[in-house]
Write a structure and sequence with these properties.
The protein is mainly α. The chain is 46% helix and 0% strand. Helix 1 runs antiparallel to helix 2. It is elongated, with a radius of gyration of 19 Å. The two termini are 23 Å apart.
């Protein structure tokens, strides 16, 4: 999973610039370079997200809702 549920999905730094480059280029080799850079950036973000501590849920085993959060 790229973004944990408790964090809103925001583009990683540099993503918008790469998107703009991809939109404006007409050279297939340049587009391939940009796509490679985007894939590298996404991989780095995925690896960083895996290193985040896991947040404990309040749901009990057995699927019974927790009265504190109304679920």
């Amino acid at each position: 999973m790229l973004f944990p549920k408790e964090m809103p999905p925001t583009p990683p730094p540099g993503w918008a610039a790469l998107q703009e480059e991809a939109r404006s280029t007409k050279d297939p080799k340049e587009l391939a370079r940009i796509i490679d850079a985007m894939n590298k950036l996404l991989t780095e973000c995925e690896e960083a997200a895996e290193d985040l501590p896991k947040k404990k849920t309040r749901r009990k085993v057995g699927g019974k809702p927790d009265k504190r959060n109304g679920r």
